[in-house]
Amino acid sequence: MAAIEQGSAFAAAVVLARDLANAPSTRKCPQWLADVAVRVAADAGLRVRVWDERELANGGFGGITAVGAGSQRPPRLIELCYEPPKAQRHVVLIGKGITFDSGGLSLKPNDGMKMMKTDMAGGAAVIAAMSALGQLGVRDKVTGLVPAAENMPSGSAYRPGDVITAFGGRTIEVLNTDAEGRLVLADALAYADAALEPDQVVDLATLTGAVRVALGTSRAALFATSDDLALALLEAGELSGDRLWRMPLTQEYRTGIDSPVADLANISRDAVGAGSIVAALFLREFAGSRPWAHLDIAGAARSGGDDGDVTVGATGFGTRLLLRWLIGSSAGSLK
What we know:
Helix content is 37%, strand content 19%. The longest helix is centred in the first third of the chain and has 20 residues, at 3-22. β6 (163-165) and β7 (171-173) form a beta hairpin. The protein is α/β, with parallel strands linked by helices and 335 residues long. The protein has eleven helices and 14 strands. Strands 1, 2, 3, 4, 5, 8, 9, 10 and 12 form a nine-stranded mixed beta sheet that branches. α2 (30-44) packs parallel to α6 (121-136) and α9 (227-240) crosses α11.
């Protein structure tokens, strides 16, 4: 593909990701995001499935169901599939799709909510990347999952102290309802591992404020169980401008999410800090043994001002990174 055509495809995908994340949450409920994904799928030749709240409950998606329980606008799981002929590798991309995050009953302060319409920036990046795969000639099979929910306080909201059951049967003690992103991602990761049989899994999420403290807004955190996958994503980040910094999966912190009443807790009981590492360790529990990478994009996904090719609001971070990685590693070159 000519460079100008490739650049145009990248730019259109980034614009889509920014537009989705910048859309106000008065309009952007989980069903709205699913409707957008259906239109994207029709335009891009993708298969699409949207799981509604009954299917999610019946299917055992306890994380997505619990997080969405406090909203009058029910949760959805969006599943997009791109499958070119003779694909040799299957990659699953997972993007957090919290269409608004009030914190739930663990309510955020007002200032903490002002940008929470962009808490689905990871999901936006996945939908946007999926929209461009055919145009860019990616040769791998790629499945995109976006667990979408609105985290709101109400009489039906999930509570601190609740024990929920994630997809696959693992139980989670909820210590803070504002640590909701990891709950919906846990369902999606476990589903991908059990039902989709991918060769590699990458998730993106505006997951922790801690990562913004650690890395600011110019880089996102990368956690990975595979050195080869981590290196490929780091290189794609440098080439695309969506830069990453690899962070450790520090095993000593794992005991902090032990629970006396469930398989694990959704935040640490220990005063170790390291919030982004603890969140990644939680997610690792659901990723299985396949090569997996987690990108915490909470700092890089939002911009407070115009700076070069970044405009105020959602940045579309991760879209170019995913596309550059998939182009560079297509046809199973990455083991």
